[in-house]
């Protein structure tokens, strides 16, 4: 039943067969998109009409390739910027939250930690509409009482960043917090007894110890932002992020350029995953 | 010493408080209060239960609500059935040198993101998609089977985008299960089924619970899979919320619907935590 126990050939063969089917199920949609990105056709699915790079580079009447499609490139750029800012803010606040909950004791800590975990169990749609509602309301209030107009309080680039940050920080907090649990408190006490103040200890000892986790959390927050749709759709202004743009194209005007974008994303992610895998292996 | 410590404390406390109060507490309270606002015949905003009444009066709304809840529980269970053997295989059966690479493969679809993978399924399942073409090529069917825009395709999509999130917590629970327990039971003559039911399942309940909650959350709050892969009868409550906000612009009623969805998911998660004796704090870890 497990690797140390002898087991029947049927059991192990059956299990392997199941695993093979599972991985086929997992890989199938990805492989399909990647192959069809090179199909010389005006339709997203089969039949296969031969190899072509049109959906990457063409700029003709009926075919607009990925790299020639300025709208699409713009939404990729918007997503990259959104991802960067979300990752930056989430990493800063998430790390601070991890330090606060691991290092400090205070009244109401349990409640506050519960709130920090809440984004895990609030549906993304609900998070999106609640932030949309309250920020729009705050914007109206600001305009009526002070005559000030804040663009970021209406659907816009910065509202998307704010909305994605609200749950990105939770993931960073969990990832950094997990590493912080392994931190040897003696190091801190030693530094404190050598007259370092608390901030110096955090900056010079704790943060360097956490660095791998912080970098990892930054990447995770970026990827979460880059692929988010459910929250973003309610907050997005005139400049759509890539998932929002892809969604409206899938719904209303699907051309194989969608396959080309998906191919780029699949390739990039797989490549990045392989690199991190090889690097981890080398470290061990 | 004491004073310095407290200044650090406030330095940590203020950003966290700002995050949680401004982006979690206030928006949800606001949503709650808004759900009771209603424009009366004179065009004035008044306190009213009308937004909730319209939910109960219109059959389509609460039917969708119930269907979404039941379907989400079903998909969560399905995700458990499909992925538990995978988690078990990767932690206990396969040779260790292969397992880390196989786990890596599981993470790739997660990072690629829901929209791209759902789109992939759309191509696979469509009438001139890969699966229909394959089945016709081998002569199993003569004309395409309608798979896209049905409850079947929606279920596949929901399962695909959520199930991988369940494997990781189940694997960490299984990893801490000492092999010698299974060996001992096996030596004493227990059958596989007994070992599974009396040792493995009780031991991995925390992992199953936290994985299940994450899957359930993703499924019940999903919009992409039901909307892109679902058909006319595949109603999903998030679609109603989406329509209220972005199609009919009835934000107050949308707020009421959002609040109902939040209550529904919280209630089911609370129930799941109670039944399995878990705490929310553990779900995150």
Explain this structure to me?
The complex is a heterodimer of chains A (284) and B (285). Chain A is an all-alpha fold and 284 residues long. Chain A has helices at 9-36, 54-57, 70-103, 109-121, 124-146, 157-180, 185-193, 198-227, 232-235, 242-252, 257-283. Chain A has a domain at 75-254: MetI-like fold (Orthogonal Bundle), CATH 1.10.3720.10. Chain A is built from eleven helices and no strands. In chain A, α4 packs across α6 (157-180) and α7 (185-193) packs antiparallel against α8. Chain A is globular. Chain B is an all-alpha fold and 285 residues long. Chain B is built from 13 helices and two strands; from the N terminus they run αββαααααααααααα. Chain B has helices spanning 2-34, 50-57, 59-93, 96-112, 114-125, 130-137, 151-175, 179-187, 192-220, 224-229, 237-246, 251-276, 280-284, and strands at 37-39, 45-47. In chain B, α1 crosses α12 (251-276) and α2 (50-57) packs across α3. Chain B is globular and about 80 Å long.
Concise synopsis of the structure shown:
The complex is a heterodimer of chains A (284) and B (285). Chain A has helices spanning 9-36, 54-57, 70-103, 109-121, 124-146, 157-180, 185-193, 198-227, 232-235, 242-252, 257-283.
User: How many helix segments of chain A?
Assistant: 11
Ranges of chain A where pLDDT stays below 50 over 5 or more residues in a row are none
Radius of gyration of chain A in whole Å, from Cα? 24 Å
- Fold-level CATH name of chain B: MetI-like fold
Number of strands of chain A: 0
Q: What structural class is derived from the secondary structure elements of chain B?
A: mainly alpha
Uncertain stretches of 5 or more adjacent residues of chain B: none
Query: According to CATH, what is the topology of the domain at 75-254 in chain A?
Result: MetI-like fold
Share in helix of chain B? over 70%
Largest sheet of chain B: 2 strands, antiparallel
CATH superfamily of chain B: MetI-like
**Mean of pLDDT of chain A:** 83
Oligomerization state: heterodimer
The CATH class label of the domain at 75-254 in chain A is Mainly Alpha
Average pLDDT taken over every residue of chain B: 82
User: What string gives the helices and strands of chain B in order?
Assistant: HEEHHHHHHHHHHHH
CATH-defined architecture of chain B: Orthogonal Bundle
């Amino acid at each position: 039943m497990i690797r140390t126990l002898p087991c029947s050939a049927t059991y192990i063969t059956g299990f392997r067969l199941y695993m093979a089917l599972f991985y086929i199920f997992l890989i199938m949609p990805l492989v399909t998109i990647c192959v069809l990105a090179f199909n010389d056709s005006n339709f997203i699915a089969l039949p296969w009409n031969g190899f072509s790079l049109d959906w990457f580079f063409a700029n003709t009447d009926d075919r607009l390739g990925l790299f020639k499609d300025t709208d699409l490139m713009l939404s990729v750029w918007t997503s990259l910027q959104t991802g960067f800012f979300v990752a930056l803010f989430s990493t800063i606040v998430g790390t601070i939250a991890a330090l606060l909950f691991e290092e400090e004791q205070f009244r109401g800590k349990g409640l506050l930690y519960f709130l920090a975990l809440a984004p895990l169990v609030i549906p993304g749609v609900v998070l999106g509409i609640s932030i949309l509602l309250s920020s729009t309301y705050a914007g109206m209030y600001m305009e009526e009482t002070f005559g000030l107009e804040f663009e970021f309080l209406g659907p816009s680039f910065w509202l998307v960043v704010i909305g994605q940050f609200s749950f990105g920080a939770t993931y960073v907090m969990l990832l950094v917090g997990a590493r912080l649990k392994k931190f040897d408190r003696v190091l801190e006490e030693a530094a404190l007894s050598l007259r370092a103040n608390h901030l110096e200890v955090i900056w010079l000892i704790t943060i360097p110890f956490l660095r791998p986790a912080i970098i990892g959390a930054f990447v995770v927050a970026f990827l979460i932002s880059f692929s988010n749709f459910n929250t973003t759709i309610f907050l997005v202004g005139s400049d759509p992020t890539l998932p929002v743009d892809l969604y409206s194209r899938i719904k209303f005007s699907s051309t194989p350029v969608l396959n080309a974008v998906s191919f780029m994303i699949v390739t990039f992610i797989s490549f990045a995953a392989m690199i991190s895998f090889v690097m981890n292996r080398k470290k061990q | 010493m004491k004073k310095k410590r407290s200044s650090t404390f406030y330095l940590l406390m203020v950003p966290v408080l700002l995050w949680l109060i401004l982006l979690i507490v206030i928006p949800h309270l606001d949503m709650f209060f808004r759900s009771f606002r209603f424009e009366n015949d004179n065009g004035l905003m008044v306190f009213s239960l009308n937004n909730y009444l319209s939910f109960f009066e219109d059959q389509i709304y609460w039917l969708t609500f119930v269907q979404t809840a039941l379907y989400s529980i079903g998909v969560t269970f399905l995700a458990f059935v499909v992925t538990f053997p995978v988690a078990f295989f990767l932690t206990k059966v396969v040779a260790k040198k292969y397992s880390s690479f196989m786990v890596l493969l599981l993470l790739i679809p997660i990072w690629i993101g829901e929209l791209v993978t759902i789109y992939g399924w759309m191509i696979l399942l469509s009438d001139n998609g890969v699966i229909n073409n394959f089945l016709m090529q081998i002569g199993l069917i003569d004309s395409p089977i309608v798979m896209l825009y049905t409850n079947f395709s929606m279920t596949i999509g929901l399962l695909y985008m959520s199930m991988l999130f369940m494997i990781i917590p189940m694997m960490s629970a299984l990893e801490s299960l000492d092999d010698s327990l299974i060996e001992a039971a096996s030596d004493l003559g227990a059958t596989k089924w007994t070992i599974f039911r009396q040792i493995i399942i009780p031991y991995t309940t925390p992992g199953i619970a936290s994985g299940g909650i994450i899957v359930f959350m993703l499924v019940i709050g999903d919009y992409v899979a039901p909307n892109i892969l679902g058909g006319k009868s595949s109603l999903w409550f998030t679609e109603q919320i989406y329509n209220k906000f972005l199609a009919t612009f009835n934000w107050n009623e949308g707020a009421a619907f959002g609040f109902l969805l939040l209550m529904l998911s919280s209630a089911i998660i609370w129930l799941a935590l109670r039944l399995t004796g878990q705490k929310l704090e553990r779900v995150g870890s």
